[in-house]
Amino acid sequence: MSRQSHRRQPDVSGATDALHVATGEQVRRVLADELRPHRVRFSTSLILLILGSALGLVAPRLMGGLVDLVRDGRPLLGHTGTTAVWWAAAAMAAAVGAMALITGVGYVLMAGTVERIIASLREQVVSGGIGMPAERIEKVGVGDLVSRTTDDVAELTRAVNQSLASLAIGGLAVLVTVVGMAFLDWRFLAVVVLLVPVYATVVHRYRAQAPDAYLCQRTEMAQRASGILTSLRGLRTVRAFNLQSSRRAGIGDHSWRTVELGVWIRILINRLFGGVNLAEYLGMAGVLVIGWFLVERDTVTVGVVTTAALYFLRLFQPIGMLVVLIDPLASAAASLRRVVGVVVEPETRSPGGGCGPGPRYAGPPELCIEHLSFSYPGARKVLDDVTARVAPGSVTAVVGASGAGKSTLGALMAGCRPVDTGRILIGGIDAACLSPEQRARTVCLVTQETHVFAGTLRDDLRLACPGVDDAGLLDALHRVGALDWVTALPDGLDTVVGERGQVLGPVEAQQIALARVLLVDPPVVVLDEATSEAGAGGGAVLEEAVWKVVEGRTAVVIAHRLDQAARADEIWLMDSGRMVERGAHPDLVEKGGAYAELWEAWSRGR
Q1: With contact defined as beta carbons under 8 Å apart, do 556 and 398 qualify?
Q2: What is the mean pLDDT of residues 310-324?
Q3: For the residues of 550-585, what is the DSSP string, one character each?
Q4: Averaged over 437-465, what is the pLDDT?
């Protein structure tokens, strides 16, 4: 990407293949739903802020009265002379004190309401990210989701904490002050008529360009984060293929684009404030001209004109506040659309959950695959019209060359991806009808890539079954062969594992994953090369752990070693997305087909 000049408007069209960005209607709907439980609190805060703004008009009005008192001897608050001045001073002090108290209470009530709404949105966006389908995250890149759950949530929280209550106070102050000017003399509203087009033009020009610029900047930041994350995660591959320059160039392009958009946004801000200063000059001049005209005709007094000028001068601060807030609020609005986009992301909504209550199985259920086909976006078919059956309580091994579709078949059976055509039945129930919670308790998938969560080992295991006691945890660890090394840990189950804790090897991490399956106790398990990361010594330990896990369940084992498959009740041989052979190990060897050739080659190589 060429580094373009900052003097012209950059392209703010945004990026494709990103997570959903919420529309204005979706944002309003979500915010209305969040505000509903806090209506009374929010309404009370608005009333108090209006009262505080009204009390702010008392001092300018009394100042105008003092001008008439000095100039024409007009009574003020029923008094004249020094007494009137003292009464005016006392009234001003009382009004300012009451205004500060009432506005402060209203500010606190509004800030508390907004904080509750932001906290709820933060929980929803994290929940939406966790529940998002894997293929969706793979398509858009993890950086976009990370950016929304970190940068955008932080920007939204910061803007709300610093700006929203000030926006309400400033907006109400402007409204109340304009009403006060109308009460002095309706002709002073000519200033408002004069300034509205100026402010509207300046703000409209800014709003027409700034939100898209902020949104595009957020997208570029997400792309930069994605590039950094993927490069760090695949650092060995990057170095092995000497990709440092290309990866650095890509990240640099997104960083430069972010800077370029930041400069363009600053130009827009400068234009905005220039227009505001022009409006202030025109407004004050208009008040003085109208006041001179009215005084000349004895329509109003000099004190009234003074009051009107002070009212308009009082508008400088709230209007300036509103203008200052346009920038962070435009940035926050872009972040809000991205945050709400995760909440309303269409693909985060499970298509299941509409077929009645969750299933209840008296024993291991039958697993049926009917005419199953699947392809990744923009790729050829990975699975092509696969039909098969796993008998209740049996173990089926899936074997085949790399790229044959074994792992994809396992992911579809576990519900990690939606099928293109066909269906998967578990105990006669279409798996597509299961909600994510029902599916998680019905089918467990264990892959070769396991994750140990940061925290104590007890908490890590209890993610699968929060209510289990230590006896249940130790029993699960014993069944997968992990009890010896767990009891040898410095603090046993209280030992901190994962990031910044006890480092667990691939065998130990896989044993933890298998122990979680036992704690969930699902009727169906899918094991996708769950022992492939173990070495020669650890392979035998994990092999026995796997057979403990599948005992008494309907199981599908995607095997990378044929001696694993030989122990299964049935074997499926996959080739190019099709099931080419199926049957028990002895029958397939005796048949002399493709599986027999694989077995012979495997046996010679051992």
Answers
A1: yes
A2: 74
A3: HTTSEEEEE-SSHHHHHTSSEEEEEETTEEEEEE-H
A4: 84
Q: What whole-number distance in Å separates Cα of residue 568 and Cα of residue 587?
A: 12
What backbone torsions phi and psi does residue 307 show, to the nearest 5 degrees?
-60, -45
Residue pair 64/310 in contact by the 8 Å Cβ criterion: yes
Sheet with 524-528: strands ordered across = 443-447, 524-528, 554-558, 395-400, 570-575, 578-583
Task: Give the chain's radius of gyration (CA, Å).
Answer: 35
pLDDT mean over 580-599 = 89
Tell the residue number behind the tokens 């309003």, with chain if given. Answer: 28
Strand pairing category for 395-400 and 554-558: parallel
| Residue of 105, 133, 136 lying closest to 416 (CA atoms) | 133
Which residues have C-beta within 8 Å of that of residue 190, sequence separation ≥ 6? 286, 290
3-state secondary structure 513-534: HHHHHHHHCCCEEEEECCCCCC
Site of tokens 């894997």? 134
Rounded CA separation 525/556 (Å): 6
pLDDT score, position 10: 55
Q: What is the pLDDT of residue 19?
A: 75
Write down the CATH superfamily of domain 24-347: ABC transporter type 1, transmembrane domain (1.20.1560.10)
The residues, any chain, with a CB within 8 Å of residue 195's CB and separated by 6 or more, are 279, 282, 283, 286
Which of 220, 303, 222 shows the shortest CA–CA distance to 265? 220
In the numeric block, which tokens belong to residue 575?
Answer: 């080739």
pLDDT exceeds 80 at position 323: no
Longest distance between any two alpha carbons in the chain, whole Å: 121
Q: Report the CATH fold assignment for 367-605.
A: Rossmann fold (3.40.50)
Q: Where are the domains of the chain?
A: 24-347, 367-605
Predicted TM-score (pTM) of this structure: 0.59
- At 403-448, the pLDDT tens digits run 888 888 888 888 877 888 899 988 888 888 887 778 888 888 888 7
Q: Which of 423, 325, 319 is nearest to 374 (CA)?
A: 423
Q: Which amino acid type is present at position 124?
A: Q
pLDDT in tens, 85-100: 888 889 889 988 998 8
For the cut 70, the answer to whether the pLDDT of residue 358 exceeds it is no
Q: How far apart are CA 286 and CA 395, in angstroms?
A: 87
Backbone angles phi, psi at 259, to 5 degrees: -65, -45
> Could you give the CA distance from residue 602 to residue 589 in angstroms, rounded to a whole number?
12
